[in-house]
Amino acid sequence: MTTDSLPVRTADARTRTASDGTPYGRRRPRLSLRQRAGRQHHAGPVAYVLLGLAALFSLFPLYFTMVAASSDNTRVTQTPPPFLPGPHLLENLGKAWQDAALGKAMVNSLIVAGVIALSTVLFATLAGFAFAKLRFRGRNILLMLVIGTMMIPPQLGVVPLFMMMAELGWGQKLPAVIFPTLVSAVGVFFMRQYLSEALPDELVEAGRVDGAHSLRIFWSIVLPVARPAMAVLFMITFVHAWNDFFWPFIALDMSNPTVPVALTQLSAGYVRDQSLIMAGALLGTLPLLAMFVVFGRQIVGGIMQGAVKG
Amino acid sequence: MATSTKTSQGGALGTAPPAGNRASGDRQGRRNLLHRLDLRGAPYAFVAPFFVVFAAFSFYPLLYTSWISLHRVEMSSLNLMEWVAFDNYTALWHDDRFWNALANTFTIGVISTVPQLLMALGLAHLLNYKLRGSTFFRVAALTPYATSVGAAALVFTMLFERDFGMINWMLGPFGVDNIDWENNKWAAQTAISTIVIWRWTGYNALLYLAAMQAIPQDRYEAAAIDGASRWQQFLKVTVPGIRSTIVFTIVLSTIGATQLFGEPLIFGQGPNGITGGADNQYQTLGLLLYEEGWKNYQMGRAATVAWAMFLLLILVFVVQRVLKRALARSS
């Protein structure tokens, strides 16, 4: 539909030529240190203050979740609200774990997000390799199709999907939320962009000359090159799958929920205690926050990399 | 390659390579056939999983949605479909809840998307400076993206609480009386939009930042030589330079806005969640779809809402397309 409004086309153009038409390769050496310094002005105090405010806006709700989760209910509901953590963190986490049945939800979410991330990485790398380096009829049209599918929100098909899952006997079961998202267009496109640049044609040719078949080339030549991008795609897909809400909320019920589905129970009035609600919210977010603390830099890099190129 | 394949065919016809070579020739031929099959077929096999998954779980359901929307289907008997032609559509057209949900989806979409993308643009500009601790600022900006909609909506529900919420407490000194963020329509829509803005601003900022870093330096130099101020450089070089990314984020945010579901559901706390507040004051199309299907058990009606959302999306894209063309012509 609006595929040409994606940065895709310009991005492709950008990798080949600079906007003024000079080949990228010729322009590149001019991006010396002096040039870079010229482009990026040093930030002044105002910029730091604004950035500090932005960081505060981003992090404060999470900090407050922790503060509320470590207080008791009276302290949370007093005015002025508490700004420092209280002493009840572990106790509240334990209670919330039981009240919201978060244990099962955690395991379910780990399975769902883990399987989806693994299969997305595998299938997206296969397809990305084909689109980047193999020649076949209809390649461009199929690639445009992949990009076009990004424009269709999967939510619109929930009614038939629900009926389909009931028929398959997957109602309220994890396969119902795993299968529809086994591979994503974004993932395919991400790997395609990465491999077109990172994988030299000569390597693939050399594999062919040695008589390796395509799967073998994929296994021994493509995978090692693709590994960094695969790691990033894994993490980004994991985050998305973990946080996916609409379809899991419809497909699963409280007896077998993922974490975001289980969290709705906290708001639905079963748990009256505000500090327990926050403890549950904190628990549900903790695994991803931990991932961010360790791999935040890589995830940021991956999102930006996916951005320049699409 | 072609010749040796012929040889093996020839061998089968009896025009015969020497007997001793025959077996190896056959093997060679089979290998070449396999090789050709591999060259031709492997690419399709590699891209097939995506298309199979898409066809089965996205495309087919999308089409089938329109078919279901022409029927009366109840949750208790999913395989009994009674043909009603366009009854569901006429019912929807005369349903105040639909127009209400459409209006809410639109207003929440605007108050969440416009500030979000403007703030993201500003944030990206700041992050594009040479910075100490740039990694920290980037990761911090992206952290809300790692928060599930459930957790985010829960904490904002508390921050926007009428009696003890932090936001009303902070507004107090400015002479603002406690705002009822849930029952007041505009307050509720603002609060829900805040959740959306919080979760997605940093993500969009990183997309912009990536695009900004790809803008060639010469354009800034040229602008500086022409005497453009920093602000003019931002308007004349930076923004046009990342235009395609801006369009991309507008498209993504628009899709997200038409699908909005989790934020209003959880913000509504309990029984009022699905209806979008006691007076439907923040019921979105996504919530209406869910209410029809999973509370009123009318799957046909739910499918009608879904198809209406799809048509709406197409309409939005057409409008965006027309606007883009008009803008391109004017500039």
UniProtKB/TrEMBL annotation, chain A:
Membrane topology, record value: Multi-pass membrane protein
Domain ABC transmembrane type-1: 106-295
Residue ranges, compositional bias (Basic residues): 25-38
SUPFAM superfamilies: MetI-like
Signal peptide: none
Primary location group: membrane
Location(s), subcellular: Cell membrane
Alphabetically ordered keywords of this record: Cell membrane, Membrane, Transmembrane, Transmembrane helix, Transport
One GO CC term, this protein: plasma membrane
Annotated stretches, region: Disordered: 1-38
Regions annotated as coiled coil: none
Highest taxon above the source species: Bacteria
Entry-linked InterPro entries: MetI-like, MetI-like_sf
Family: Belongs to the binding-protein-dependent transport system permease family.
Full protein name: Carbohydrate ABC transporter permease
Species, as recorded: Streptomyces himalayensis subsp. himalayensis
TrEMBL record, chain B:
An example Gene Ontology biological process: transmembrane transport
Subcellular location: Cell membrane
Gene Ontology CC entries for this record: plasma membrane
Positions of the UniProt region annotated as Disordered: 1-27
Keywords: Cell membrane, Membrane, Transmembrane, Transmembrane helix, Transport
Membrane-spanning residues: 41-63, 106-127, 139-160, 304-323
Record-linked InterPro entries: ABC_transporter_permease, MetI-like, MetI-like_sf
Record's protein name: Sugar ABC transporter permease
Membrane-related topology note: Multi-pass membrane protein
Recorded superkingdom: Bacteria
Family, similarity comment: Belongs to the binding-protein-dependent transport system permease family.
Residue stretches making up the ABC transmembrane type-1 domain: 102-323
Composition skew (Polar residues), residue ranges: 1-10
Gene3D superfamilies recorded: MetI-like (1.10.3720.10)
